[in-house]
From TrEMBL:
PANTHER family xrefs: L-ALA--D-GLU ENDOPEPTIDASE (PTHR21666:SF289), PEPTIDASE-RELATED (PTHR21666)
InterPro entries: Cell_wall_metabolism_enzyme (IPR050570), Dup_hybrid_motif (IPR011055), M23ase_b-sheet_dom (IPR016047)
Protein's organism: Sphingomonas changnyeongensis
Keyword match Phosphoprotein: no
Keyword terms: Signal
Name recorded for this polypeptide: Peptidoglycan DD-metalloendopeptidase family protein
CDD domains (UniProt xref): M23_peptidase
Molecular function as annotated in GO: metalloendopeptidase activity
Xref: Gene3D superfamilies: 3.10.450.350, Glucose Permease (Domain IIA) (2.70.70.10)
Segments forming domain M23ase beta-sheet core: 407-502
Length: 553
């Protein structure tokens, strides 16, 4: 409420730092120059009316507290000190305005409080002594362990246990299981015998089983990854191996072998498995991609790659249109137990308008080739490169680098690093392999049509005289033997024994089938063409020998 003092209205507010007898600050407002406070306690905003704000002065009312509150007393001095630090915050938020003056002031306050607590604490920071519980004895630990649930690593004791009586007899040794059943796997580079030995089969049983299995199938024919089911029986003493009671495994795709122990010892039982060897035929439209279309139709990736290489020998793959139809026939084995194995590609066909490609894989002289339906085989043209390297010397007259005079060079030289493999340029037979004067280590091959090839200055020879070789087969390695200034290959080509320029020679050979071989070829092709596309609808045992070649996963 306003108070009158000589015609001046005084408005007072409480001072939070004034204390119980603090005075109050008063604001003197001249009646004609300043608007009055409103009814709700606020002062209306200033306007530009006839009333204008006049200067005002702050005065201190005389309080009525104990000791007086005059301007010159002790209470007045305390009021003036409290008013000076009225807006000082000694405990600001340390999470805001980090690094500012207020933040450092709050940090100083915190440090002061902590220091005061440490100075006023009894005994500094030493821990206060307290009672220590006594450690439980063995009986208490056993009782607690019996009533607790513990993991297997800690013994897994649960429930109380009875103490041993006179009826309890200690075991001389830990009892064993009467029978152990396990599975052994033949690993890569491993053997059937070693797999059984690792499984714990004794020496006598191992020798007997190896002999029985060897009479049924060669041990080398057991492929890596074969799983062997083994059952070992009871043994009289831990110092001896367990006896073999039973053994069974899949020796071949069409044969299962079982070894069992009877009254007369170990015996072998052959369990034949019916196998359908009807090939798998896959056909479809090429579309945007021959490879993707064949793979989507169910052809294995390896078979599709072989198909593309075979078709490429007759036509460019880029010329195959989207409306062309592909035809693949793949060797397949389907066992009565449900297993399926896909083998190699047997037939590659392609139909594009009036153009039709039919290729059948046929073996001639121990080598598989793709033959057309007419019995015409692959046509082999230009020579393969004998070594990976650049040509350093040509055919004809040249200055010999060692002899120092002009001499006819009967071949061409290829620069290559020492030890690089040297390949046969085409099929042939080794006529000579050994040391040959200035040629050093020398290999000579005879080819069809009275042609031959020679390879000189080799560091090592990888073939022997009379051995047949195939195009691209390694016959030796680059060296610098004989009259040579460094590692390189001297390559020669002969026609009727005379050296000719290798760059002007092209070996071309085509295999042709005739007579009984041609009839067998056509019968085989007709049998494959009778196969319907898609997998057989139901299992049927096929005659032995029908279907494709050796199956592979």
């Amino acid at each position: 409420m306003p108070r009158r003092a000589g015609g001046v209205d005084l408005y007072q507010r409480g001072d939070q730092f004034a204390g119980p007898a603090g005075g109050t600050a008063a604001l003197a407002l001249d009646a004609p120059g300043l608007a009055r406070p409103t009814a709700h306690g606020g002062i209306p905003p200033r306007n530009t009316g006839p009333f204008t704000a006049a200067p005002f002065t702050a005065t201190r009312l005389r309080g009525a507290g104990p000791g007086g509150a005059g301007p010159g007393g002790a209470q007045g001095a305390f009021d003036r000190f409290g008013g000076r630090f009225a807006d000082l915050d000694l405990a600001p938020d340390l999470g805001a305005r980090i690094g500012s003056a207020e933040w450092w002031r709050g940090l100083a306050t915190l440090g002061a409080l902590l220091g005061a607590a440490w100075l006023l604490s009894p005994g500094g920071l030493r821990p206060l002594p307290g009672p220590v519980p006594a450690l439980p004895d063995d009986a208490s630990l056993a009782a607690g362990r019996a009533q607790a649930i513990a993991p297997l690593a800690w013994g897994a004791d649960s429930g109380s246990r009875m103490a041993a009586t006179d009826l309890v007899r200690p075991l001389a040794e830990t009892p064993e299981r009467p029978v152990i059943e396990l599975t052994a796997t033949v690993g890569a580079g491993d053997g059937f015998r070693r797999a059984l030995a690792r499984a714990g089969v004794g020496r006598e049983d191992l020798a007997t089983v190896t002999r029985l299995i060897g009479d049924a199938v060669p041990a080398g024919d057991i492929r890596p990854g074969t799983r062997i089911d083994i059952r070992l029986g009871r043994r009289p003493d831990k110092r001896v191996a367990r006896p073999l009671d039973a053994l069974a495994f899949r020796a071949r795709f069409d044969l299962r072998l079982e070894v069992t122990r009877g009254d007369t010892g170990l015996t072998l039982t052959r369990v034949p498995i019916a196998v359908d060897r009807t090939p798998l035929r896959i056909t479809g439209v090429v579309g945007s991609s021959l490879y993707r279309a064949a793979r989507a139709a169910g052809a294995p990736a390896r078979a599709v790659e072989t198909y593309l290489r075979a078709v490429a020998t007759k036509m460019s793959v880029g010329e195959i249109g989207s409306d062309a139809r592909f035809d693949l026939i793949i060797a397949q084995q389907r066992a009565a137990t449900g297993e399926v194995e896909l083998g190699e590609l047997l037939y590659a066909g392609l139909s594009q308008g009036r153009r039709r490609v039919q290729l059948l894989k046929w073996t001639v002289d121990g080598r598989d080739q793709w033959f057309e339906a007419s019995g015409v085989g692959e046509r082999r043209g230009a020579l393969a490169r004998p070594v990976s390297g650049r040509q350093t010397s040509g055919f004809g007259m040249r200055l010999h680098p060692l002899l120092g005079y002009n001499r006819f060079h009967r071949g061409i030289d290829f620069g290559a690093p020492h030890g690089a493999p040297v390949y046969a340029v085409t099929d042939g037979r080794v006529a000579f392999a050994g040391r040959s004067g200035g040629h050093g280590n020398h290999v000579r091959l005879n080819h069809d049509g009275g042609l031959g090839s020679g390879y000189s200055h080799l560091s090592r020879i990888a073939v022997r005289p009379g051995q047949p070789v195939r195009r691209g087969q390694v016959i030796g390695y680059v060296g610098s033997t004989g009259l040579s200034t460094g590692p390189h290959l001297h390559f020669e080509v002969y026609r009727q024994g005379q050296a000719i320029d290798p760059r002007k020679v092209s070996f071309t050979s085509t295999a042709l089938l005739a007579g009984a071989e041609l009839r067998a070829f056509r019968a085989r092709l007709a049998g494959l063409m009778a196969v319907r596309p898609g997998a057989p609808p139901a299992f049927a045992k096929a005659p032995a020998g029908s279907g494709g070649g050796k199956a592979a996963e």
